[in-house]
Amino acid sequence: LDFDEGLNVIYGDNESGKSTLMNFVLMMFYGGKSRKKDLLDNPRKKYRPWNGETMKGYIVFQDEGREYRLDRTFRETNAKDEIKLIDNHTGEDIALENMDEPGKHFFKMSFESFNKSLFIDSEDLAFTSDSSKELSEKLLNLISTSDEDVSYEKTKALLESKLYEFKTKSGKKGTIVDLEEKIYEEKRALQEAKLEEDQKK
Fold this sequence. Notes:
Helix content: 40-55%
Structural class: alpha+beta
Largest sheet: 3 strands, antiparallel
Mean pLDDT: 84
Order of helices and strands: HHEEEHHHHH
Radius of gyration: 29 Å
Number of strands: 3
């Protein structure tokens, strides 16, 4: 399949391969997470070729103006998959921090968030608490800052840490406490100087 720029719509009768295509994209970028024995719940088993050949594929895509080719040979688990990411123009091999889940790098989201948002599996639209929290945070960040990666919790923690530089929770340390002590010392020195001046007079 060769997609055009922008939105592409794929339609067809039941069992014509739409879900297979969706799962191919999901599995290329995140692998097959399920370890269930049931054929329908485990994509590694569901899509394994009937003739016993190895399940594998590749996908060519662009990210920030650079074209990549992602090859994946599926084994028993993500960790055992053979994955290769190359620059499609130079042929250069590219290593990622999470090679078994390239989607984390390119989509900036976990498997759970991708699976419940961009993937939109029609058979399972329920949100888990973890993915719901991550997605909600990204949406709130987009609404308030136009940046999905700005974290409210991180920003709050940063502001609190800066606040505590001025005065700790206990109120015993910090810039303000140091200045208050200095003011107290200066006032005491001023009083002593006035007493000394009065005595001299």
